Amino acid sequence: MSVNDTQRNYAALKVLIGGMLGMVVAMGIGRFVYTPILPLMQRDLGISNSLAGGLATLNYLGYLLGALLCSFSPQLLRNKIITAGALFTSIATTFCMGLTLSVFWWSTMRLAGGVASAILFIVISAEVAEALSRRGFGHWLGALYGGIGAGIAISGLIVPQLDRLGGWSISWLGSGALAVVLAVLGISIGRRQHYTTPLAGSPPQTSGLLKSLWLLASAYFFQGLGYITTATFIVAIIATTPGLESFAAYSWVAVGVAALPSTIVWPLLAKRFGYKSALLAAYGLQMTGILVSIKAASIPTVLFAAVSFGGTFLGVVAMTLAEGNRRLPADSRRAAAVLTTCFSLGQMLGPLFSGVLADIQQGFELPLLLAAGFVAVGGALIAFDRRF
C-alpha cells in the first residue's frame, strides 16, 4: 500500500469516526436518551404513561418537521449557521430537560430537539456520504449509522451512574454535558466537509412514484407505529418488573450493542438472500421479540427482547431506504422523503397511543400486543409487494 493510499484510508476513517460521534450526539443521546431516563422521571416525579408518550410524540413530531423542512428547503443543508444552531439546540434541550418541572418547557424542548435531530441526521449523512464517496469508500457508509447504536449503548451505561448522583435531573444534565464533549471530539476528528453534492433545484418528476412505493411505504408506516412502543417504553416496562429493576437501564445497553452492527449485517444478508427475504426476517424477528417482552420476567427473556429489537430496527431502516433508492434511482431523494415521512408518522402516533392505553389498562400488555400486530401488518405488506 502506497503512502497516498494510507493517507486516503486514514482521512476516510477520520470522516467516518467524526460522523459516528455526530450520530451519537444527535440520535443516541439527543433523541434516545429519553428512554432510559423516563423510568427515573416516573419514579421521582410520578409522571403518567400518557404524559411520557406525549413527550415522545412531540419529539417525533419535531423529527418529522425537521425532515420535511430539509426536503422542501435543501439549501438549508449548506447553511453553517443552521447546522451549528441544530447542534446547539440538540445539546441544550437535552441539558435543560433537567432544569425544569414544567410540562410546557419539557414539551417545547422535546419538540425542538426532534427538529434539531432530524437536521443533524440529514446533514451528517449527506456530508459523510459525499466525503467517503469522493475518497472511494462509499461502501463504508452503513457503519455511520452504527453510531446511533453506540449512542444508545452509551446512554444505557451512563444513566444508572448519573442516577446515583442525583436522580432524573442529574441524568439529563450529565447526558447534555457528555454530548458537549462528544460533539467537540467529533468535530475535531472529522472536520466539517465542504458540501459539494448539488442541492438546489427541484427534483425530477418521476411518474408512478406512489405506485412503485405505496406498499413499501405502507409497511414502513406500520413498522414505525409498532417498533416505537418498545423504543419508548422498554426500559420503563422492565423497571416495573419484579426482580429486574436494577437491570432495566442495562437492557438499553443491549439494544445499542445489538444495533451497532445491524446496519451492516442486514444489508449484507439482503444482498445474499434478497431484500424481500431479509426484510421479512427482520420484521418477523422484531415481532417475536415484542411478543416475548409482554411476559418477559427473567434476564434471558428480557435480553432476547432487547437484542431482537436493537438488532432489527436500524436494519429495517437501512434496507427500506436502499430498496426505495433501487426502485427510483433517478429520484432517490424524493423516494427517501416519502418513505421517511410515512415512517415518521407511524412513530409519532405510536407513543401517545401506547401511553394512553397503558394508563387505561394499567399495564403495557395490550399496547405491546398491538405493537406486535402493527409490525406483523408491515411484514404482510412486504410479503404482498411484488416490486422487489
Automatic annotation (TrEMBL):
GO molecular function, one term: transmembrane transporter activity
Keyword match Membrane: yes
TM region positions: 12-34, 46-69, 81-105, 111-129, 141-159, 165-187, 213-238, 250-270, 277-296, 302-322, 334-354, 366-384
Annotated InterPro entries: MFS_4, MFS_dom, MFS_trans_sf
Keywords, alphabetical: Membrane, Transmembrane, Transmembrane helix
Domain Major facilitator superfamily (MFS) profile: 11-388
GO cellular component: plasma membrane
Protein name: Predicted arabinose efflux permease, MFS family
